[in-house]
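Example record used in the benchmark description.
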Amino acid sequence: NILSNNLTIEKVNHTSNLDINEKHFPLIQSEDEEEEEEEEELVAFVNSDSTLRINQKIRLSNNIVRWLRGPIKVMLDGTMHAVDVCAQGTHISDSALQAVKQGLDKQKMTLSKEEEEEIVNNSMKYPFIEITSEWKFQEENSDRGYSSPSIWMINKKNKTRFLFKIQELPLCAANEWLAYVLGRYLGLPINQVQISIYENNLITIHKHVAKHNEKTITFMDLPKQKRRTILTYPIIECMDLFDKIIQNVDRNPRNILITILKTNHINDENIKLKIHLIDHSSCFGMGKLNGISVVASKFHSNHLAIVKFDPIHKSKQFEKYLKKHPIEDRPLISKTLHRFATITDFQFDSWINQIKDLLSISQYNRIQNVLRKQRDIAKFYSIQWGFSNIK
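Model output (structure tokens):
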């Protein structure tokens, strides 16, 4: 097993730790979270004494975040606060809020048998969830970033923390859930996401990645040598492949999270790290993430926040990425690539149809087109590289 020395993706609960080869992944959350006290999760473990390393250099698509510190960060925080104040008079369209309500109704009443089986069989969360009295405000999120306000809430029933993140554009909410479903299907440690309405805002709900005995560190806050080491792990190459598939333009050092035991120090020898991937709103045609697009999204403007692009051109970029992939690294992404290559049109459509009311017709067609073209390219290279029989 080429992965066993450096990457283990596990289903974690009170009773068992399963290696990735013991079950067909993805190994994901069970169906009804609110009825569980101990929830299963999909995580990627890496050890500091791992010997297997990737050969190509991974470049994050949005590295500018690492420079936003000190006075620059203070200035940008002030600017974005001013934008938030100016945007208070604007609201997301009623159609987006109505789409969530309709989605909840469909989940309860009219979800097709095939769509329901697709979600349940892969142990994924339904896209929409209703906020009830079981949810309690905990605190403002002090590390909210620059695009969307967010708060921490706790589900009183299972004592689990969740981040409520306001989404100014329906496409961003749809992207988050689609990336979650696709990533989890591929066996990657993508943070759990659902969509809802809170205080008349469209929100995405993100489960807190850390357990009660763990602490969270962003990749950006790691010591320099630790960052360099982690960038050589195969899970990061699988992340890079995933970002190329969904055309993610905002992979940055803040949305790769590391959790370790509270009793450990990040520089401890042979420390066992858990890697989590979060924040996937800027994919499937959101364009280059920049100041204009961030500000435009706060005013709910699709015109400036979402750019038009040629899916064929983007697919050629994906094909070029695979064509030039180092031969010695290909086995390290083989399972992720092959699993993506085997997804059917029906599976893609069943996922997109769950959240289609949040999308315009052009957005729906674009996402569908992107996924099918990327899948066909992945299928070609999976066969060419001799990985078509991987389970």
